[in-house]
TrEMBL record:
InterPro entries for this protein: BON_dom (IPR007055)
Ranges of residues in domain BON: 1-53, 55-95
Cited Gene3D superfamilies: 3.30.1340.30
Coiled-coil positions: none
Name under which the protein is recorded: BON domain-containing protein
UniProt xrefs under Pfam families: BON
Source species of the chain: Snuella lapsa
Amino acid sequence: MGLTKDKATVKLENGWVSLDGELPWNYQREDAKKAVRYLSGVKGLSNNIKIKSKSNDSIEKSIVEKVLRRSSIDDSYINVKVSGTTVTLSGKANS
């Protein structure tokens, strides 16, 4: 996936380059930095690109509960709550 103007922006002012935007992978952020860092006339660089992963996977509650049962933890008093990709465990454990 290449960089597009709707994902990242480049601003140049008095030899200072500012990179802004959101990209799904860190290697893209690093590639954008490398692409402008050593250009003639560049005095400095601010890489403000943020990483925002596209995760469409949701976690199934039953899978988390099976993993707890296979562990050495007594899961009798542990409650599992799943919302998309966030798992919340509440209750008491013996460790």
